[in-house]
Structures are given as structure tokens and as C-alpha cells.
Amino acid sequence: MLKMKILNDAYANNQLIAFRTPKEEWGETIVGHIKKLTPENITVKEISEYGESIGTTTFKVDDLINIVVEDKTLRCLEYTEKMSKRLSAAKCTTIWGNGFETKEQILDRMKERKIITLFVEDGEDDDTNVIGFVEDVDDKSVLVEMIDEYGEKNGKILVPLETITGVRWESLEDNSRWLLYQNSQTVMKK
After folding, report:
1. Which end of the chain, N or C, is surrounded by fewer C-beta atoms within 10 Å?
2. How many CB atoms are located within 10 Å of the residue 12 CB?
3. Strand partners, 159
4. pTM (predicted TM-score)
């Protein structure tokens, strides 16, 4: 059975895997390392999206669907897991206010060349997050070089100051992207 071959290989190599079961909402994924495997059950040491251990869970092998190994997301998560001791949100700062009110903090992050999250009105019920390096700021806009969840540059976006509802830096998400950005050559070689 192909499913058991993939699981046995991942177990033998302590490889990070991801999968869904019928109980998860669409888009939710279980990620972790296999700690025990029988033809009926699999016990997984789960990790968070920032590589932190979140406990051990046992699933029925027959319930596993969409098993993923060795993709770009897992390579990044595996690196983040190894470096998770370097990740901290202890200095996380969020300031709510429009772009005109938070412009000074945005300029400070630009000078420091730190990844920042801008919360931006998207015309819907929720805000959109723009995450990356601030490239430039003028009286009306902020230019951000976006950094994606893999730590890679993902284009630039011009954000009107009037659409910004808040700013955050040094969060786990910001720090994870910074770590991956700094080490992208190492992470993507695998």
C-alpha cells in the first residue's frame, strides 16, 4: 500500500509530514513527525506553524488524506523548527492607528531594515496583512517589499497611509519570515 510506504519512509527518516483527516476543516493541516506507526494507527508529534511542539496525537491511518512530504512549505517549517529557540514574540509590538498616526514607527522600522506587518483595510470586513521591508515613505504612501511565508521576496506594494489601521513588528510571524529570509539559500538547498 503506497500510503504505508510513504509513512514508513517518513518515520524511518524522522521526516516532517503534513496531512488532513476528514475531521479537519478545509485548509487545516496536521504537521509533525511520526513517533509511532502501526498498520492501524499513527502517532504524530505535532508542531505549530513556527516549529514549536504542540503535543502528540494519534490518528487512524485510514483517516489520513492528502499526505505531503518534502515540499517547500515543509522544508521551511523544518528549518524553523530547528531554529525555534531563536524565535520569540517577547518584543512583539502592535500599535493600532491609521498610517498617519503610525508613520513614525513605520519610519523607524525602515531605518532598522526590519520586517514589519501593516494591517490594511481591504474594503471587506477584515484587514489584509502586508508583511515585508519598508522601502520608502512619503506624505501619502508606504512602499513595502513583501516577504512571503517562505522568506522570499514577493514583489512590492504601495500602500496608502489612509488605509493602514495598525502596525506590528517582532511577532512570531515577522521573526519567522526574517529567519527564513536570512537563510533562504540554506533552506531551499534541501
Report:
1. N
2. 10
3. 142
4. 0.80
